[in-house]
Amino acid sequence: SVLSVSDHICGMPSNQPRFIFSRIIGGEEAVPYSWPWQVSVQISDEHICGGAVLAKEWVVTAAHSLSLDGVDHAGLVFCIRHPHPYKSDLSLCLSVKQYIIHPSFNKTTMDSDIALLQLAEPLEFNPYVGPVCLPAKEEAVQPSRVCVITGWGAHEADREKGRKLHQLEVPILVLDTCQSYYINLPSKVTQRMICAGFPLEEGKDSCTGDSGGPLVCPSEDNSGFYTLHGITSWGLGCGEKSYPGVYTNVGVFVDWIKHSVNSSGMYEKNN
Ligand code: ARG
Protein backbone atom coordinates (compact mmCIF):
# COMPACT_ATOMS: atom_id res chain seq x y z
CA SER A 1 0.00 0.00 0.00
CA VAL A 2 1.34 3.40 -0.97
CA LEU A 3 0.62 6.46 1.09
CA SER A 4 0.10 9.80 -0.50
CA VAL A 5 -0.97 13.10 1.00
CA SER A 6 -3.41 13.67 -1.83
CA ASP A 7 -5.38 11.29 -3.98
CA HIS A 8 -2.88 11.50 -6.77
CA ILE A 9 -0.67 8.55 -7.61
CA CYS A 10 2.67 9.06 -5.89
CA GLY A 11 6.28 8.05 -6.16
CA MET A 12 6.19 7.11 -9.81
CA PRO A 13 8.86 8.41 -12.19
CA SER A 14 7.56 9.04 -15.70
CA ASN A 15 10.99 8.33 -17.06
CA GLN A 16 12.50 5.31 -15.39
CA PRO A 17 15.69 6.38 -13.62
CA ARG A 18 18.83 4.74 -14.92
CA PHE A 19 22.01 4.20 -12.98
CA ILE A 20 25.09 3.92 -15.07
CA PHE A 21 27.89 4.24 -12.59
CA SER A 22 25.66 2.80 -9.97
CA ARG A 23 27.60 4.54 -7.66
CA ILE A 24 25.84 15.06 -6.03
CA ILE A 25 29.43 14.25 -5.22
CA GLY A 26 30.49 11.09 -6.87
CA GLY A 27 27.08 10.78 -8.51
CA GLU A 28 25.88 11.12 -12.06
CA GLU A 29 23.47 13.23 -14.04
CA ALA A 30 19.85 12.17 -13.72
CA VAL A 31 17.76 11.23 -16.75
CA PRO A 32 15.46 14.25 -17.27
CA TYR A 33 12.11 13.89 -15.51
CA SER A 34 13.08 10.74 -13.68
CA TRP A 35 12.52 12.43 -10.31
CA PRO A 36 9.26 14.35 -10.76
CA TRP A 37 8.98 15.37 -7.10
CA GLN A 38 12.38 17.07 -6.98
CA VAL A 39 12.16 20.86 -6.73
CA SER A 40 14.56 23.69 -6.13
CA VAL A 41 13.66 26.06 -3.33
CA GLN A 42 14.85 29.52 -4.22
CA ILE A 43 15.07 32.97 -2.73
CA SER A 44 15.39 35.89 -5.16
CA ASP A 45 16.16 33.56 -8.06
CA GLU A 46 18.89 31.80 -6.18
CA HIS A 47 18.82 28.10 -5.47
CA ILE A 48 19.20 27.56 -1.75
CA CYS A 49 17.93 24.05 -1.18
CA GLY A 50 16.19 21.07 -2.65
CA GLY A 51 12.68 19.96 -1.80
CA ALA A 52 10.13 17.28 -2.65
CA VAL A 53 6.53 17.63 -3.82
CA LEU A 54 4.04 15.92 -1.53
CA ALA A 55 0.79 17.23 -2.98
CA LYS A 56 -0.40 19.93 -5.35
CA GLU A 57 0.14 22.66 -2.80
CA TRP A 58 2.77 21.11 -0.57
CA VAL A 59 6.49 20.74 -0.73
CA VAL A 60 8.68 19.35 2.03
CA THR A 61 12.18 20.64 2.63
CA ALA A 62 14.72 21.06 5.44
CA ALA A 63 13.92 23.49 8.24
CA HIS A 64 17.47 24.81 8.20
CA SER A 65 16.94 25.94 4.62
CA LEU A 66 14.37 28.44 5.81
CA SER A 67 15.93 29.64 9.00
CA LEU A 68 18.56 31.85 7.48
CA ASP A 69 20.07 34.46 9.71
CA GLY A 70 19.31 38.07 9.07
CA VAL A 71 16.67 37.40 6.45
CA ASP A 72 13.29 39.01 6.75
CA HIS A 73 10.96 36.28 5.60
CA ALA A 74 8.00 38.61 5.42
CA GLY A 75 9.35 40.15 2.24
CA LEU A 76 10.53 36.92 0.68
CA VAL A 77 9.21 35.00 -2.23
CA PHE A 78 10.14 31.38 -2.40
CA CYS A 79 10.16 29.83 -5.79
CA ILE A 80 9.81 26.24 -6.70
CA ARG A 81 11.51 25.38 -9.92
CA HIS A 82 11.44 22.22 -11.81
CA PRO A 83 13.27 20.52 -13.29
CA HIS A 84 16.17 22.82 -14.16
CA PRO A 85 16.71 25.57 -11.60
CA TYR A 86 18.70 27.82 -13.89
CA LYS A 87 16.78 27.53 -17.13
CA SER A 88 13.67 29.62 -16.84
CA ASP A 89 12.00 28.04 -19.87
CA LEU A 90 11.84 24.75 -18.08
CA SER A 91 11.04 26.11 -14.67
CA LEU A 92 7.95 27.12 -12.90
CA CYS A 93 8.32 29.61 -10.20
CA LEU A 94 5.54 29.68 -7.66
CA SER A 95 5.37 31.78 -4.61
CA VAL A 96 4.88 30.28 -1.20
CA LYS A 97 1.78 31.14 0.78
CA GLN A 98 3.10 29.90 4.09
CA TYR A 99 5.81 27.74 5.49
CA ILE A 100 5.68 25.60 8.58
CA ILE A 101 8.92 24.84 10.36
CA HIS A 102 8.71 21.83 12.67
CA PRO A 103 8.16 23.17 16.21
CA SER A 104 10.96 20.95 17.58
CA PHE A 105 13.52 22.02 14.99
CA ASN A 106 16.79 22.88 16.70
CA LYS A 107 19.14 24.95 14.65
CA THR A 108 22.18 23.97 16.69
CA THR A 109 21.66 20.22 16.77
CA MET A 110 19.73 19.99 13.47
CA ASP A 111 17.20 17.81 15.24
CA SER A 112 13.78 17.68 13.51
CA ASP A 113 15.14 19.34 10.39
CA ILE A 114 11.91 19.42 8.42
CA ALA A 115 9.61 22.12 7.08
CA LEU A 116 6.59 22.32 4.81
CA LEU A 117 5.96 24.93 2.15
CA GLN A 118 2.43 25.65 1.08
CA LEU A 119 2.32 27.05 -2.43
CA ALA A 120 0.20 30.06 -3.27
CA GLU A 121 -1.38 28.17 -6.18
CA PRO A 122 -1.53 24.44 -6.80
CA LEU A 123 1.01 22.75 -9.02
CA GLU A 124 -0.34 21.07 -12.08
CA PHE A 125 0.70 17.46 -12.05
CA ASN A 126 1.94 16.10 -15.35
CA PRO A 127 4.51 13.49 -16.32
CA TYR A 128 7.25 15.84 -15.14
CA VAL A 129 5.83 17.11 -11.87
CA GLY A 130 4.28 14.75 -9.38
CA PRO A 131 4.31 13.81 -5.71
CA VAL A 132 6.53 11.36 -3.89
CA CYS A 133 5.03 8.74 -1.55
CA LEU A 134 5.28 9.02 2.21
CA PRO A 135 6.31 6.13 4.43
CA ALA A 136 3.80 4.63 6.82
CA LYS A 137 3.73 6.21 10.25
CA GLU A 138 6.91 5.39 12.19
CA GLU A 139 8.06 3.21 9.31
CA ALA A 140 11.81 2.84 9.52
CA VAL A 141 13.89 2.12 6.48
CA GLN A 142 16.07 -0.94 7.00
CA PRO A 143 19.86 -0.61 7.08
CA SER A 144 21.65 -1.79 3.93
CA ARG A 145 18.71 -0.92 1.72
CA VAL A 146 19.90 1.06 -1.27
CA CYS A 147 18.12 4.37 -1.73
CA VAL A 148 18.68 7.41 -3.93
CA ILE A 149 19.59 11.02 -3.21
CA THR A 150 19.10 13.75 -5.80
CA GLY A 151 20.00 17.40 -5.97
CA TRP A 152 21.54 20.40 -7.68
CA GLY A 153 24.16 20.70 -4.97
CA ALA A 154 27.91 20.93 -5.35
CA HIS A 155 29.67 18.12 -7.20
CA GLU A 156 32.90 18.60 -5.30
CA ALA A 157 33.34 19.66 -1.72
CA ASP A 158 34.45 23.20 -2.57
CA ARG A 159 32.75 23.78 -5.84
CA GLU A 160 29.71 25.83 -6.68
CA LYS A 161 26.28 24.30 -6.97
CA GLY A 162 25.58 22.15 -9.98
CA ARG A 163 23.42 23.12 -12.92
CA LYS A 164 22.08 19.70 -13.72
CA LEU A 165 20.21 17.42 -11.41
CA HIS A 166 22.45 14.70 -10.06
CA GLN A 167 21.63 11.40 -8.42
CA LEU A 168 23.49 8.89 -6.31
CA GLU A 169 22.55 5.52 -4.89
CA VAL A 170 23.36 5.29 -1.19
CA PRO A 171 22.97 2.43 1.27
CA ILE A 172 21.16 3.13 4.55
CA LEU A 173 23.50 2.73 7.53
CA VAL A 174 22.89 1.23 10.95
CA LEU A 175 22.08 4.15 13.26
CA ASP A 176 24.36 2.98 16.08
CA THR A 177 27.30 2.76 13.73
CA CYS A 178 26.57 6.19 12.38
CA GLN A 179 26.30 7.63 15.87
CA SER A 180 29.73 6.26 16.64
CA TYR A 181 31.23 8.02 13.61
CA TYR A 182 30.00 11.33 14.93
CA ILE A 183 30.57 10.58 18.61
CA ASN A 184 33.42 13.03 19.09
CA LEU A 185 31.69 15.88 17.41
CA PRO A 186 29.29 18.33 19.02
CA SER A 187 26.69 17.38 16.41
CA LYS A 188 24.92 14.20 17.46
CA VAL A 189 22.96 11.78 15.37
CA THR A 190 19.52 11.32 16.95
CA GLN A 191 16.65 8.86 16.43
CA ARG A 192 15.01 11.45 14.23
CA MET A 193 17.85 11.13 11.74
CA ILE A 194 19.04 8.43 9.38
CA CYS A 195 22.48 8.07 7.87
CA ALA A 196 23.24 6.94 4.37
CA GLY A 197 26.33 6.75 2.24
CA PHE A 198 29.79 5.27 2.10
CA PRO A 199 31.68 5.90 5.36
CA LEU A 200 34.56 3.66 4.27
CA GLU A 201 35.14 5.54 1.04
CA GLU A 202 35.73 9.09 0.03
CA GLY A 203 33.79 11.20 -2.41
CA LYS A 204 30.25 9.86 -2.60
CA ASP A 205 27.76 11.95 -0.69
CA SER A 206 25.27 14.78 -0.77
CA CYS A 207 26.77 18.25 -0.44
CA THR A 208 26.05 21.97 -0.14
CA GLY A 209 22.86 22.85 -1.98
CA ASP A 210 21.41 19.36 -1.75
CA SER A 211 19.88 20.06 1.65
CA GLY A 212 16.13 19.79 1.83
CA GLY A 213 16.14 17.42 -1.12
CA PRO A 214 14.80 13.88 -1.07
CA LEU A 215 16.30 10.55 -0.12
CA VAL A 216 13.90 8.08 -1.70
CA CYS A 217 13.81 4.30 -1.51
CA PRO A 218 12.40 2.08 -4.24
CA SER A 219 9.54 -0.17 -3.24
CA GLU A 220 10.82 -3.55 -2.17
CA ASP A 221 8.51 -5.45 -4.49
CA ASN A 222 10.05 -3.68 -7.49
CA SER A 223 6.74 -2.10 -8.44
CA GLY A 224 8.64 1.04 -9.31
CA PHE A 225 7.31 3.39 -6.63
CA TYR A 226 9.60 5.57 -4.57
CA THR A 227 9.00 6.56 -0.97
CA LEU A 228 10.48 9.59 0.75
CA HIS A 229 12.43 8.27 3.72
CA GLY A 230 14.93 11.08 4.20
CA ILE A 231 15.55 14.77 3.71
CA THR A 232 19.13 15.85 3.13
CA SER A 233 20.17 17.60 6.31
CA TRP A 234 23.84 17.67 7.33
CA GLY A 235 27.22 15.98 7.50
CA LEU A 236 30.80 16.88 8.31
CA GLY A 237 32.21 18.23 5.06
CA CYS A 238 31.11 16.30 2.00
CA GLY A 239 32.14 12.79 1.12
CA GLU A 240 34.69 12.52 3.90
CA LYS A 241 35.65 9.12 5.20
CA SER A 242 33.83 8.18 8.42
CA TYR A 243 31.40 11.07 8.06
CA PRO A 244 28.37 9.87 6.10
CA GLY A 245 25.47 12.10 5.11
CA VAL A 246 22.76 12.60 7.73
CA TYR A 247 19.13 12.85 6.71
CA THR A 248 15.92 13.73 8.50
CA ASN A 249 14.06 10.50 9.29
CA VAL A 250 10.78 11.22 7.52
CA GLY A 251 8.94 8.23 9.04
CA VAL A 252 9.06 9.95 12.43
CA PHE A 253 7.32 13.01 11.00
CA VAL A 254 4.57 11.45 8.90
CA ASP A 255 1.87 12.27 11.44
CA TRP A 256 3.05 15.85 11.73
CA ILE A 257 3.10 16.20 7.94
CA LYS A 258 -0.40 14.81 7.53
CA HIS A 259 -1.74 16.84 10.38
CA SER A 260 -0.24 20.05 9.03
CA VAL A 261 -1.49 19.44 5.51
CA ASN A 262 -4.97 18.32 6.56
CA SER A 263 -5.50 21.06 9.09
CA SER A 264 -5.01 23.55 6.31
CA GLY A 265 -8.21 22.04 4.93
CA MET A 266 -6.84 21.27 1.52
CA TYR A 267 -6.56 17.53 1.36
CA GLU A 268 -8.12 14.43 2.72
CA LYS A 269 -5.80 11.60 3.50
CA ASN A 270 -6.08 8.63 1.21
CA ASN A 271 -4.33 5.27 1.29
N1 ARG B 1 23.71 21.07 4.90
C1 ARG B 1 24.17 21.16 3.56
C2 ARG B 1 23.23 22.05 2.75
O1 ARG B 1 22.68 22.96 3.33
C3 ARG B 1 24.45 19.83 2.91
C4 ARG B 1 24.13 18.61 3.73
C5 ARG B 1 24.68 17.35 3.22
N2 ARG B 1 26.03 17.11 3.66
C6 ARG B 1 26.62 15.93 3.60
N3 ARG B 1 27.86 15.82 3.91
N4 ARG B 1 25.95 14.88 3.24
O2 ARG B 1 23.07 21.95 1.55
Automatic annotation (TrEMBL):
Coiled coil: none
Keywords: Disulfide bond, Hydrolase, Protease, Serine protease
Gene Ontology MF terms in the entry: serine-type endopeptidase activity
Protein name per Swiss-Prot or TrEMBL: Peptidase S1 domain-containing protein
Gene3D superfamilies in the record: Trypsin-like serine proteases
Taxonomic source organism: Strix occidentalis caurina (northern spotted owl)
GO biological-process terms attached to the record: proteolysis
CDD domains referenced in this protein's UniProt entry, alphabetically: Tryp_SPc
Residue intervals of the Peptidase S1 domain: 24-262
Short name of any one Pfam family annotated for the protein: Trypsin
